[in-house]
Amino acid sequence: MKQFIIVHYGEIGLKKSNTDYFLKKLRKRLKMVLEKRFKRTFSIKHILRRFLIDLPEDFDRDQYIELLEKMFGIKNFKFVKVGSIDLNKLGEQIWRNLPKEEYKSFRVRVKRSMDLPYKSVEAERDLGAVMIDKGLDLPVKMKDAELEIDIEFFNDKAFLSFKKYTGPGGLSPNSQGKLISLISSGIDSPVASYMMMKRGARVVFAHFHSFPYSDTDEMEQVKDLVKILSEYQFDTKLYLIPFGKIQKVIATNLKIPGKVRTVIYRRIMLRIAEAISRKEKANGLVTGDSFGQVASQTPENMFAIHEVSHIPIFQPLIGFDKEDVVEYANKIGTFDISKLPCKDSCTMFMPRIPELRANVHDILEYEKDLPFDEWTATSLKDSEIIIF
Ligand code: ATP
Ligand code: MG
Predict the structure, then answer these.
(1) I need a surface site. Which of 100, 123, 211, 218 has the fewest CB within 10 A?
(2) Ligand 1 atom closest to Cα of 243?
(3) What element of type H or E holds 19?
(4) CATH 3.30.2130.30 residue ranges for the chain
């Protein structure tokens, strides 16, 4: 029997006049990912609010699941076989294809997007009766049945499946323009980047490192994190920006009180990230800040830090508890890398007791004679760019 994958999408179907734009982006992404991975062409048709992807005779389900589970915009997907719209014939086809596993309950679920001489509930009842007649010795359970015999009628055919896989949701990849994500080796910023990609942003990564004042562990960790995140978009770019020299100048400047260093480092990172955003034609920055989590994240300090930026700073984790971020990081697969111990660039030149309520006027005074334009230009020139 000919097999297909049916993909259902979520929020992008609610976009009214913009739906076509999002569907085009999702279809393009599906086609590119599948064709690159399996080295063959795929026909992907959009029929009545779902995508229908043709499958080759021989295919490995797990390989497809792995790709589709990482495709933003997808609500769920399933592997389907084509059956008859004649319920007797269809019952026979379902029976022949029933999975061999042991189940405790079953139900038939029918969805109709075409004219048929029977209603969906009637088809569910009839097909359920056929299964019992043929010897399926299981109770029917309308909610949370273990075996769900799923039929969609459209395009003059029945499409049958026995298992539905959940997609990651969100908006179509690359549908919302570019953002520069400030990524550390910590737990938060990789999750924040994921969140913005899920909302359709194309993310370019920027990491500030202290090498040669530190070893390369942190940089390697960041590369591993970006590699995981790069599976959600094409041509992922990571800027590795040397930051140690700048930190050293700040840390040894006697006019700058030790406790405001962190705020000043962050302000410099934002200046450089903004310059990268101009170069990349991006529309904003992303950070993994969470309100009140660490010293740099008090409202006063966040104000003092953000004051320097002329473009929006998106902080998708702002209201998250750490536990929730960890749960996400585990789900994405970044947690095991983020939790590895390493000296991060900020702790290197960090004050022992950080300021909790920085004052912008004081900060501007401390920053008065610092050569920011020169630092920004040198940082861009000396950055290493890695493409994943
Ligand atoms: P994370 O777990 O993402 O490191 P955090 O809770 O440790 O976050 P901070 O260290 O205060 O918080 O950093 C706040 C945000 O600043 C980070 O989420 C990240 O977006 C950015 N950031 C911090 N250090 C760096 C760095 N070395 N390079 C790039 N961005 C950084
Ligand atoms: Mg950190």
Answers:
(1) 100
(2) 27
(3) helix 19-38
(4) 3-166
How far does the centroid of ligand 2 lie from the alpha carbon of residue 73, in Å? 30
Evaluate if residue 343 carries a pLDDT over 80: no
| pLDDT tens-place string over residues 32-80 | 999 999 999 999 999 999 999 999 999 999 999 999 999 999 999 999 9
For ligand 1, say whether the CB of 294 is within 6 Å of any of its atoms.
Answer: yes
Residue of 179, 185, 187, 189 to test ligand 1 pocket, by largest number of atoms within 8 Å of CB: 189
DSSP 3-state of 29:
helix
**At the topology level of CATH, where does 3-166 sit?**
VC0802-like (3.30.2130)
C-alpha 296/C-alpha 287 separation (Å) is 12
What is the location of CATH 3.40.50.620 in the chain? 178-387
Rg (CA), the chain: 27
What is residue 349's predicted lDDT score, i.e. its pLDDT?
Answer: 77
Superfamily name with CATH number, domain 178-387: HUPs (3.40.50.620)
Distance 24 CA to ligand 1 centre (A): 35
Q: Which atom from ligand 1 is nearest to the alpha carbon of 187?
A: 2
pTM for the predicted model, two decimal places:
0.94
The pLDDT of residue 284 is above 90: yes
Residue 321, CA atoms < 13 Å, CB-side half-sphere = 3
Distance of CA 325 to the CA centre of its chain: 14
